Amino acid sequence: MLIPLDVHVNPNSNGLPGGIQIQQVLDGLAAWALLAALGGLLVSVIVWSVGSNGGNYHAVSRGKTGVLVCGAAAMVAGGAAPIINFFANLGSQIR
C-alpha cells in the first residue's frame, strides 16, 4: 500500500483558467450581500420605529433583531476574505 509521505498544496488563483472571472463574480456577490444587509437594516429600522410609535412591542422586538442580524451579516460579508485567510493560514501551520 502506497501512502503519500509529503503532499504540498499551494493555492494559486492563476492555476486554472477563469480565476480572474471567478474573482469578479465573488466581488460582485460580496457587493450584493452588503447591499442586501443595508436594505434589511433600513427595513428593520422602519419596523422598529413604526412599532415603537404604535406601541407594538412585537414589531419593536423584530425590528431590533433585524438591525442586529443585518449588522452581523454586513460584518461577515465585509470580513469574509480576512476570515477565510485567517483559517487558511491557521491550517497551513498544521504539521
How does this model look, in words?
This is Integral membrane protein. The chain crosses the membrane at residues 29-51, 66-88. The chain has 95 residues and is an all-alpha fold. The protein has a domain at 29-94. It is built from three helices and no strands. It has helices spanning 19-54, 57-78, 80-92.
Short descriptors:
mainly alpha, single chain
Present the secondary structure layout:
Layout: H1 19-54, H2 57-78, H3 80-92
Short description:
This protein has 95 residues and is an all-alpha fold. The protein is 75% helix and 0% strand.
Shape: elongated
In terms of DSSP E residues, the strand content is: under 5%
Helix share, percent:
over 70%
In N-to-C order, the SSE pattern is HHH
Spatial gap, N to C terminus? 23 Å
The largest sheet is: none
The number of distinct β-strands equals: 0
- Whole-angstrom Rg: 21 Å
Task: List the total number of helices.
Answer: 3
From the helix content, strand content and strand pairing, which structural class follows? mainly alpha
Would you identify the regions where 5 or more consecutive residues have pLDDT less than 50?
Answer: none
State the oligomer.
single chain
Query: What do the pLDDT scores average to?
Result: 92
